[in-house]
Design brief:
Helix content is 25%, strand content 34%. The protein has helices at 40-48, 90-100, 105-119, 134-146, 164-180, 192-198, 216-221, 226-231, 266-275; strands at residues 2-11, 14-24, 29-33, 55-60, 63-64, 75-78, 152-156, 185-189, 201-206, 209-214, 238-247, 250-255, 261-263, 281-285, 291-293, 302-311, 316-322, 325-331, 342-346, 353-356, 359-362, 369-370, 373-374. It has a 6-stranded mixed sheet, with helices on both faces. A 6-stranded antiparallel sheet has the order 13-12-11-14-20-21.
């Protein structure tokens, strides 16, 4: 339906979007996720026609939009900087797109009241934007984008300025509203929870390039490279430098330039045979996949020194050092260690990701049951 082909945009010497190829299906909620400066908002503006690409094209239903102005693309956009009409009330800001489409007054009133109720701004309809908080203005901007029917909705960080409680609620409301409208949505965010919760598919963008495109499950459990693995997740994945070797013909890794060895998955040996040894291996492991004990046993044989414990209430995040490498472990709230304590970790081939020269080589094999289906 919506397709970007080799889309490129430069600002002076900075390449904001670099030969981007991306397609959004009809009725799909596609999230563009990445850090500040990744090119997310620039991509959205190129789709909307607000910016013109230096090269590449935007296609919609097979038609090239190169010479189609923004107002004729039938796309509705919510801007991160609100872009509200300061001289109009909240009601009139929400009603404006409907009046432009010649809706009847009663239909406008119904739609505005319904949207205001969803966004929890019903009591603000008579105010002007200058008398609203940043979060309230952001909800008005989102409502104005969603209130009219459009072929594609382009949402630029639409709930980023809300407080945590309201943001959590609005994620569900936004997903429900878009599903009810059977909307095609391209949504930009730097919040991984928002990206995971909302998207049918998500693309991870960095420095104007796509790092990975897939479902939230694929991106989280099978990251394509170190950047994706380290950026998607909270706490982020920990990485430990590893040196491959074999002992008694069994593949293993030596960790963090220490005299610490863990078994390597047999597939790593096959990789080494086929490609040779890379410049570096890294072991990647998520905090939830590590178990920890105060005493060494057959499963917990990787020593680490406790650095600090972050107490979150429902869990603790323990930060420890293996040599000079920092690693994070999630523990139950009642499990606490003191700084400088020696603890023992379980790192093995069944719960680690392996990266060679920055790219993924292997992932843990997981089965997730949903109803009668197994993945």
């Amino acid at each position: 339906m919506l397709e970007l082909r080799s889309l490129t945009k430069k600002f002076d010497r900075t390449i904001a979007v670099n030969k981007l190829d991306l397609a959004c299906k009809q009725n799909e909620f596609l999230v563009i996720f990445g850090p500040a400066g990744a090119g997310k908002s620039t991509t959205l503006r190129l789709i909307a026609g607000i910016l013109k690409p230096d090269s590449g094209e935007v296609y919609f239903n097979g038609a090239n939009l190169k010479n189609v102005p923004p107002e004729r693309r039938n796309m509705s956009m919510a801007f991160e900087n609100y872009a509200l009409y300061s001289h109009l009330s909240v009601y009139e800001n929400l009603a404006f797109p409907l009046r432009a489409k010649k809706f009847k007054d009663q239909d406008i009133r119904t739609r505005v009241q319904d949207m205001a109720a969803i966004l929890q701004i019903s009591e603000l309809l008579e105010r002007r934007p200058g008398f609203l908080s940043g979060g309230q203005r952001q909800r008005v901007a989102l409502g104005r984008a969603l209130i009219r029917d459009a072929a594609v909705y382009l949402l630029d960080e639409p709930i980023s300025h809300l407080d945590a409680k309201l943001r959590n609620r609005m994620r569900g409301e936004l997903k429900a509203v878009c599903a009810h409208k059977e909307a095609t949505v391209v949504h930009v965010t730097h919040d991984y929870r928002e990206a995971m919760a909302l998207s049918d598919r998500m693309t991870v963008l960095n420095k104007g390039r796509i790092m990975q495109l897939g479902t939230p499950h694929e991106v989280f459990h099978r990251p394509a490279n170190e950047f994706v693995a380290g950026f998607v997740g909270d706490p982020p994945m920990s990485f430990v430098d590893a040196e491959y070797n074999e002992q008694n013909e069994k593949p293993q890794f030596r960790l963090a330039q220490q005299d610490i060895h863990i078994p390597a998955h047999p597939g790593i040996r096959a990789y080494v045979i086929e490609y040779g040894l890379p410049q570096s291996f890294k072991i990647g492991i998520r905090a939830k996949d590590i178990t920890i004990t105060s005493l060494q046993d057959n499963n917990h044989h990787v020593p680490a020194e406790v650095y600090v414990t972050e107490k979150m209430g429902y869990q603790n995040i323990l930060i420890a050092h293996i040599g000079r490498t920092q690693i994070r472990v999630i523990t139950p709230p009642k499990v606490a260690f003191n700084s400088k304590d020696t603890v023992w970790l379980n790192l093995n081939e069944s719960n680690v990701h392996v990266f060679a020269d920055g790219n993924a080589v292997s992932h843990p094999k997981r089965k997730i049951k949903l109803g009668t289906n197994s993945f």
